[in-house]
UniProtKB/TrEMBL annotation:
<keyword id="KW-0807">Transducer</keyword>
<protein>
    <recommendedName>
        <fullName>Olfactory receptor</fullName>
    </recommendedName>
</protein>
<feature type="transmembrane region" description="Helical">
    <location>
        <begin position="24"/>
        <end position="43"/>
    </location>
</feature>
<keyword id="KW-0812">Transmembrane</keyword>
<dbReference type="GO" id="GO:0004930">
    <property type="term" value="F:G protein-coupled receptor activity"/>
</dbReference>
<comment type="similarity">
    <text>Belongs to the G-protein coupled receptor 1 family.</text>
</comment>
<keyword id="KW-0472">Membrane</keyword>
<feature type="transmembrane region" description="Helical">
    <location>
        <begin position="136"/>
        <end position="154"/>
    </location>
</feature>
<keyword id="KW-0675">Receptor</keyword>
<keyword id="KW-0297">G-protein coupled receptor</keyword>
<feature type="transmembrane region" description="Helical">
    <location>
        <begin position="267"/>
        <end position="285"/>
    </location>
</feature>
<feature type="transmembrane region" description="Helical">
    <location>
        <begin position="55"/>
        <end position="74"/>
    </location>
</feature>
<keyword id="KW-0716">Sensory transduction</keyword>
<dbReference type="InterPro" id="IPR000725">
    <property type="entry name" value="Olfact_rcpt"/>
</dbReference>
<feature type="transmembrane region" description="Helical">
    <location>
        <begin position="233"/>
        <end position="255"/>
    </location>
</feature>
<keyword id="KW-1133">Transmembrane helix</keyword>
<dbReference type="Pfam" id="PF13853">
    <property type="entry name" value="7tm_4"/>
</dbReference>
């Protein structure tokens, strides 16, 4: 069958105009906080010599991925709150689908790598600098990108080759696999199974690996001093919080057949906007090194301004 659809119409989060106006300001504020917080994390780590370690290298990379991930969906969502018709071209929809899964999967792999980094640092501290040298860290980041690309490429190819002959109304605020499969004019059962095997199993297997890693880390605390235990627990608590906020919604959405629920849109808000917005707050509020580095940079900047304006 031929593809007769040149554009899709998004339903968005709500059809109520008053709710849309409220959501416009709310999500605009969330996006500003998200961008400011993640850029602040990146700048702080880049300009602070005392944060020159693999953990902060991965944290700055996570912030970069968060910026990219949310920027694929949030600006379009915010603009659509003011639009009468929330349309997106077929090509634009496929590009958005590709980017959502590219950055989303890269973030999942990055969190898994960060858990491995914490495992080595806490359970094998004497070998940490040998195991996690900069060559290994760079290779792990490249692997995250490659894994995200392969996953996203499969998702997009499976979707773009399907025939769409109408209707073209997507019951979502961005282009994702399940809502698009629902509109296809063909049997999507096999494609749906592949999507579950691809997206769902990546989310579930990564979550199991993360839970296993942090379980081993928590069990190893008994051999640490009270101060070392407190510091390690604080770091791990931040990571575990982020993992729960990201993985539980992803598993709910993707580890099931190609069906859609009314709750899907609100659940998707968590992993596309809320979690990337909260990441900087979660990591900085529980990390004294990052907070102290931010204070030093702020003081340095303030002193520089005072010297210029005596």
């Amino acid at each position: 069958m031929e593809n007769n659809v040149t554009e899709f119409i998004l339903t968005g989060l709500s059809q109520n105009e008053d709710v849309q106006q409220l959501c416009f300001f709310l999500f605009l504020l969330c996006y500003i906080i998200l961008m400011t917080g993640n850029f602040l994390i990146i700048i702080t780590i880049q300009r602070s010599p005392n944060l020159n370690s693999p953990m902060y290298f991965f944290l700055s990379f996570l912030s970069f991925v968060d910026i990219c991930y949310s920027s694929v969906t949030a600006p379009k969502l915010i603009i659509d709150f003011q639009a009468k018709v929330k349309n997106i071209s077929f090509v634009g929809c496929m590009i958005q689908l590709f980017c959502v899964h590219l950055f989303g999967c890269t973030e999942i792999f990055t969190l898994t790598v960060m858990a491995y980094d914490r495992y080595v640092a806490i359970c094998k501290p004497l070998l940490y600098t040998t195991i996690m040298d900069w060559k290994v860290c760079s290779m792990l980041v490249v692997t995250c990108w490659l894994g995200g690309f392969v996953h996203s490429f499969i998702q997009t190819i499976l979707t773009v080759q399907l025939p769409f002959c109408g209707p073209n109304l997507i019951d979502h605020y961005f282009c994702d696999v399940h809502p698009l499969l629902k509109l296809a004019c063909a049997d999507t059962y096999v494609v749906g199974l592949i999507v579950v095997a691809n997206s769902g199993m990546i989310s579930l297997s990564s979550f199991v690996i993360l839970v296993g890693s942090y379980t081993i880390i928590l069990l190893s605390f008994k051999t640490h001093s009270s101060e070392g235990r407190r510091k390690a627990l604080s770091t791990c608590a931040s990571h575990i919080t982020v993992v729960i906020l990201l993985f539980i919604p992803c598993i709910f959405i993707y580890l099931r057949p190609s069906t859609t629920f009314t709750e899907d849109k609100m659940v998707a808000v968590f992993y596309t906007i809320i979690t990337p917005m909260l990441n900087p707050l979660i990591y900085t509020l529980r990390n004294m090194e990052v907070k102290n580095a931010m204070k030093r940079l702020w003081i340095k900047k303030s002193l520089g301004k005072n010297r210029k304006n005596p």
